[in-house]
Design a protein that fits this description.
mainly alpha, single chain, about 60 residues, 2 helices, about 0% strand
């Protein structure tokens, strides 16, 4: 899934505080939440590199 783009950048009907009732923005928010959930589900502990304590100490000195 590709990260959704905000419809506000090229919107001709844009005005102050329009996010509360804009259907395009609400649809974008739903898609963005779904995308973020997919990304969060894909980044678990199995994808992380495991470093020893001594290696971490050397890296952050």
């Amino acid at each position: 899934m590709k990260k959704p783009e905000s419809p506000c950048a090229k919107c001709t009907e844009r005005m102050l505080r329009c996010h509360g009732h804009c259907e395009r923005y609400m649809a974008f928010q739903r898609q963005n939440r779904e995308y973020n959930q997919l990304v969060a589900a894909g980044t678990g502990q199995e994808n992380r590199v495991k470093y020893s304590k001594s290696r971490l100490n050397r890296m952050y000195k």
